[in-house]
Amino acid sequence: MIAASIRAKILVFDSGLGGLTVLRALMKQRPDADFVYAADDLGFPYGPRPESEVVALVMNAMAALIGSEQPDCVVIACNTASTLVLPHLRAKWSIPFVGTVPAIKPAAEFSATRMISILATPGTVSRDYTRDLVEKFAGHCDVALVGARKLASLAEAFVQGEQLDEAEVAAEIAPCFVVSGERRTDCVVLACTHYPLLKEQFVRLAPWPVHWIDPAPAIARRADHVLRDRRAEGQGGFSFRYTSGAKPDEKLRAALQKILPARAMAEKATAQP
Ligand code: DGL
Question: What is the C-alpha to C-alpha distance for residues 33 and 41, in angstroms, rounded to an integer?
Answer without folding.
Answer: 25
